[in-house]
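Exercise: predict the fold of this chain.
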Amino acid sequence: PFSMQAMRDYMPAMIDIADQLMNKWDRLNPGEEIDVPADMTRLTLDTIALCGFGYRFNSFYRDTPHPFVQAMMRVLDETQTRQRQLPLQTRLKISAQRQFEEDQAFMASLVDDLIRKRRAMGDAADNTDLLGRMLTGVDKQTGLTLPDENIRAQCITFLIAGHETTSGLLSFAIYYLMKNPEALARARAEVDEVLGGTLAPSYEQVHRLEYIDQVLSETLRLWPTAP
């Protein structure tokens, strides 16, 4: 029941970001190329930030990624690099270590600022999002709330771990649909039947998209984004 209500609460924000993507694609000329994985990454990052923390990266209105996203990508790249090199090599790369620390500090400061501003709003805040639930939630057994350091770590983890797998799934789903015209036609027919002329799909309508759900499951089977 908790997760269902949370998803209902997130629907307007999800539709908000999806509309931004559709508007971007609608403005393209016929024959123009679309970088689907890049736009799916923008879609998922912006959705998580808005649904989770009430923050807008505005990725579809920028020529370059938001500074937080740039810092996050550098941290991910450096983390992967360190897994492939000896500890001594990591220690000798002083400039890379400095950039790594600066990026981590920047990400933490932005999230800490969000937490401070939300706490300052008190009861006036709309705490139905993920950040609000972490700030106001109380453990039923201990009566304790999450410390701010934990909330910060959770926020960053949700952004890092949550965006790439989902964007990968959506990218491959579109790829497989384009390669299978019959499946694409059936998926479109289901969308037309369930949504019709609806401008803002409801939570109930989305869960009636059973064939689309099968497409996503089959995409994960064929190409798992986290094998």
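Check your answer against the key: The first helix runs from residue 2 to 26.
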